[in-house]
Prior knowledge:
The chain is α/β, with parallel strands linked by helices. The N and C termini lie far apart (62 Å).
Amino acid sequence: MPSAALPLETRRLFLRVNGIVQGVGFRPFVSRCATARQLTGHVENTTRGVEIEVQGSAARVEAFAAALLEAPPPMARVLSCTREDRAPLAPGRETGFAIRASRTDPVSAVMVPPDIATCPACLAELNDPADRRHRYPFTNCTDCGPRYSIIHTAPYDRARTSMAAFAMCPRCAAEYLDPTSRRFHAQPNACPTCGPRLALLDAAGEPLPEETDPLGAAAAWLVDGGIVAVLGLGGFHLACDATCQAAVDRLRQRKARPAKPLAVMVGDLAAARRLATVDATGAALLTSPQAPIVLLPSCPDSALASAVAPGQDRVGVFLPTTPLHHLLCAAVAGRPLVMTSGNRSDEPMLATLAQARDRLAGVADAYLTHDRSVVHRVDDSVVKTMGAAEPLVLRRARGYAPGPLPLGNPDGRVVLALGAELANAVCVVHGDHAFLGPHVGDLKNLEVEGVFREGVGHLLRLLRVEPDLVVCDLHPRYRSSVFANHWVERGCQRVVVQHHEAHAAACLAEHGFGGDAVVLALDGLGYGHDGTLWGGEILVGRPGGFRRAAHLLPVPQPGGDQGAREPWRMAASHLRSALGPDWANLPLPALADHPPADLQLLDAAMERGLNSPFTSSCGRLFDAAAAILGFRGAHRYSAQAPMELEAMAAACSEEPAAYPALPPVEQEGRLVLQPAGLVRGLLDDVLAGRDRTTCARAFHRGLARLFADAAARVAADRGLAHVFLTGGCLQNAVFAGDLSAELHPHRLTVHCHREVPPNDGGVAFGQAAWALAAARRTL
């Protein structure tokens, strides 16, 4: 018999959807959309993206295609959707709509989803005594749970994750196959019958008796002042009672972290408001699916131990990120918990029990762990509220990485950008997107360098690409720059990018800005084209073609790297530049700690250029100001002195006049900014006994005006209207706010970072953007 004829309006449409569309319930969503419109066809994950074919009436097919883009699942992010009409299948050839098994193709365009904090529906089940997942620490669904941290390879299917070790029980399997369930094709789906399980080990790493309730016993340890290593989504945390001074002091001593602020986890938004001022922006961040640590203004009368964030006016707060953390917060009766990276100071985060037993011996009193492996360690993200301005991502990790960022790449290059030496993160460009990997840390530690190299390989494997272009910093001895040699030997072309030009490129590329602009790149250190240490830079141009238009007056950095660790040395240098040789006789506590003979030797070393490289660093100027205002000794963590200076300025209750600056000097076609007036004004007020918070505030305002006036002059000379702000100094909310305010009267459009960190965590993204732009300009 001849086959039935197709209705005249029948249409078959092929769609390929790219973006974060695997691991976020997109295929079940597609199936529901098609079934609701009585369409036949199929959907499948491939390494090219999610591929769909649907057939039915033309009107219903078009309505289906529109629905894909209008109302995707909460964590999906559709970045592109290509369409192609195909010949309809004859009636009877296809019945219903199917989710097919994943397919691996030679070409890859897969985008790996970040880990997602517990959704409200799973949290409700967790707290429902009648639910079969009541108090189950690994509850998840297509809207939440582990993703990046458990994926071995793409495409994202259970068999390619660390959940492959757990066979689903019949009830979980039924949910997995039920199109009406929110666990339809949820790859980490599990329950108490078939999924991962908790275990509690003692200080020696030995299991406690089987009858022990791991969660209850761990909570009791915390309430009694103990320190518990907790295995979360991306590795271990070290937890203790944040209200117990003795417990926090003990954690600091054992972890060798004497002063750096510690993050605090609380059970809900109400508990967060007892510790910090939580505005609408802060509340949205805390309760977002990314659930980052949010740096918020602290409440002076909170119950937190003073050792949690000494010298700071802010506290890092976050809400539970997994069901395990929700249960733990409830089990300690609402106490806020210090929840800091599970490692010793400056070492990488630990991800396996074997690592924790080895490196946390003598640190943790107990280990709350489980048997779901962490494939790729990932630390907590950190976001800072900036008053009226947009919040800043300071550390891009759990919840954000390795999510895609748009980046023009018309030649289809595969780029590996290796980032900076400090606060390292790597970036891979594939197609028209950049994948900025999670925060790695400072590569001066050999173990962190190992994690860095491991992370590069993991990201390339997930994206299923091999680079043809490798980008590194201009500094030849950075470990990331040395690692570039490995890729050159494998046939990659190498591009070298100056540090501050990478910062500038990152900010312009994040905004998709294609023209020339003025960029303020202000940070602690970057190796300059002239062999000096840059850091207070005003650049003009665009990625691949910046020019140094202005900068702070270079001064000696006595002691080299030691000058970056000990702020009093930079105070000596800037005071010497402003006052001459009489600086050594000033009655400042930071100088009084050192014998006069030592100060004379330091002066002689600066005079002769002995181990005193010149630097134009804005960060080192903040160091100097902090030392003049009373900071003594050495940094005990990165940027400690400038952070305490910011806190001092934020505490000022008035709006003092800005310290006046000297006019810039033109030199070799550049403006050289003169900070001596600021230094003298600050010194005079300090010696006169003026309130320190007022002095700190006046210094911030004066420095902001110095840079804003110079940027406006550079912009006017070149007919430019856009100014971009980048670099680690722009993490300072007081300074960033003052700088924007000072630029406003000049009628310049000011752009700041949003998703890419302004610090060195964003350098790799900028390196990639710079290299691609430079390649296009040479064609």
